[in-house]
Design brief:
The model is unreliable at 56-61 (pLDDT under 50). The protein is α+β, with helices and mostly antiparallel strands and 471 residues long. The strands form six sheets. The chain has a five-stranded mixed sheet. The chain has a five-stranded mixed sheet with strand order 13-5-4-20-21. The chain is 30% helix and 23% strand. It has 13 helices and 23 strands. 43% of the residues are buried. Among the domains are: 210-303, Rossmann fold (3-Layer(aba) Sandwich), CATH 3.40.50.11290; 342-405, Dna Ligase, domain 1 (2-Layer Sandwich). It has helices at 21-29, 32-49, 77-101, 106-109, 115-119, 167-180, 182-187, 196-206, 229-239, 295-300, 324-332, 349-357, 383-395, and strands at 52-54, 63-65, 68-75, 141-149, 153-160, 217-220, 242-244, 249-252, 255-258, 265-267, 269-272, 305-307, 339-340, 344-345, 362-366, 375-377, 400-404, 410-415, 418-427, 429-432, 436-438, 443-446, 462-468. Pfam families: CP_ATPgrasp_2.
Length: 471
């Protein structure tokens, strides 16, 4: 039986928390018919804009509207200040770690992380060894998943450093709330997020190759059939840069060029939304039709910046996650401001034995898994599901980690039966360039099924606007 979740809006005595009181008062005096009408209006507008997410393997079709909930997740200023400081600290350490393992490997020599855990990792790219990247920055955009559990403490659940997605939904959720309920923003001092595309473009321009004063930035997409294509097109449009596919770019004399109607144009920074394996068919997968032949040679020569850098995935692999607090201590000489979730690494015999003995109590994840797939939530699993997963673990224990089942905090949410608590998480987006910055807030994802702890859009989750109060 899971513990009672921390309620974001209500204290344990049932009273409304201070930072929610203005919203609760507005909600109490607003006719339910108006709220229902606004919810329907939001659905119509999201359909019109085309804000969808591709759900693979479903008989009902692949394109799905991401459900949007109009009860915001509100974070008071003092909580955000602590959370933002912890996120910046964590991303600085992750960048230092990635730079280190592709250069002198000091943390491995010191024995703080087992070398085989890194060098034999499926996300480690030996082709990146010794390549200097601008500013020693690898994770220019990081989406760090944070949950609140227990008595309200924040925990980092995972670090997304490869091609983190979801920021377009953060921006559209805010736009939708301001359109539907402008009076709420007059009542609250909500920190803005609308400037994220400008901040992202400034960040990308700041890491251009040395000597480039007016860099050309492009966004590289796999194409319209990718699950996050809406976001790719949205961000390119918002930043005022070209949205390109691999066939639109080519390499000549170790420079990258974009094909245009006016002839070739040099490209200096590529914000890529394509996995490493597909970026350069001359180096990685030779069957890739998505990448640019010769891209790694141009990268190695320092003629183009790729964001996020090739090989960054090793730092967000779930088997590396348990060592992030040690990275903070090793590289920054500081104690971590944000806690990890206690994690069992199943390649270790003692962790494997404990996990198999307590499978019903734990969440088990594939180290390379994403989107809520390839995982077991022990308390919600049937006896048959537990046994089937046990056999999968025994066949390849190195592919899994396990964690206690956290009772994620809950936020009031509109569902068919009315307003009811539903579990949520938060993905703030941290940008690394000349400075480490982030907009106040992030993407709050909500598990719409009663009792569900899986918030991923691909698994039926929805989103909420995230309000960070300025005072």
């Amino acid at each position: 039986m899971l513990a009672t979740p921390y309620d974001e809006m209500h204290a344990s005595d049932g009273g409304v928390r201070e930072h929610y009181k203005t919203f609760a008062s507005w909600l109490a005096r607003t006719p339910s018919e108006r709220v229902a009408h606004k919810r329907a209006e939001a659905d119509t507008l999201f359909h019109r804009v085309g804000i969808t997410f591709t759900v693979y393997g479903e008989d009902a079709g692949t394109e799905r509207l991401i459900p949007f909930d109009i009860v915001p997740r509100i974070i008071p200023a003092n909580e955000w200040k602590h959370l933002a400081a912890g996120l910046k600290q964590r991303v600085r350490a992750l960048n230092a770690f990635t730079n280190d393992i592709y250069h002198s490997q000091e943390i491995l020599k010191a024995g703080r992380i087992p070398a085989e855990q890194v060098l034999c990792n499926g996300q480690y790219r030996p082709e990146m060894q010794g390549i200097d990247v601008p500013g020693s920055i690898y994770a220019h955009i990081a989406g760090v998943d944070v949950v609140r559990a227990g008595e309200g403490e924040f925990y980092v659940l995972e670090d997304n450093l490869r091609v983190p997605s979801g920021v377009s939904y953060m921006l559209e959720d805010r736009r939708m709330m301001m359109r539907l309920f402008p009076e709420l923003f007059a009542l609250h001092s909500v920190a803005p997020v609308e400037h994220y595309p400008d901040l992202l473009l400034e960040n990308l321009r700041s890491v251009a190759p040395s000597g480039v004063n007016d860099p050309t930035v492009v966004l590289l997409t796999p194409g319209a059939y990718n699950s996050a294509y809406f976001e790719h097109a949205f961000l390119a449009q918002q930043m005022g840069i070209e949205l390109v596919e691999g066939q639109d770019l080519f390499v000549d004399d170790e420079f990258v060029y974009m094909r245009t109607t006016r002839g070739p144009q040099r490209v200096d920074v590529i914000y890529r939304r394509i996995d490493d394996d597909f970026l350069d068919p001359l180096v990685f997968r030779p069957d890739s039709m998505l990448g640019i032949p010769g891209l790694l040679a141009a990268y190695r020569a320092g003629r183009v910046t790729i964001a996020n850098a090739i090989g960054t995935g090793v730092a967000d692999d779930k088997s590396i996650y348990p060592y992030v607090p040690e990275m903070v201590r090793f590289y920054l000489g500081e104690e971590p401001l944000l806690s990890n979730v206690p994690t069992f690494v199943l390649r270790r015999k003692e962790d494997l034995a404990y996990t198999l003995a307590h499978l019903r109590e734990l969440v088990v994840k594939e180290v390379h898994g994403a989107g809520g797939y390839g995982m077991l939530i022990g308390p919600a699993a049937s006896k048959a599901e537990l046994e089937a997963f046990r056999q999968r673990i025994l066949r390849s224990p190195e592919k899994y980690i396990a964690q206690p089942t956290l009772t994620l905090s809950a936020c009031p949410t509109f569902v068919d039966a009315g307003i009811a608590p539903r579990h949520i998480d938060l993905r703030p987006f941290v940008l690394s360039g000349r400075e480490v910055t982030l907009v106040p807030g992030g993407l709050t994802r909500v598990a719409l099924r009663e009792g569900s702890l899986v918030v991923n859009s691909s698994q039926g989750g929805g989103t909420k606007d995230t309000w960070v109060l300025e005072r």
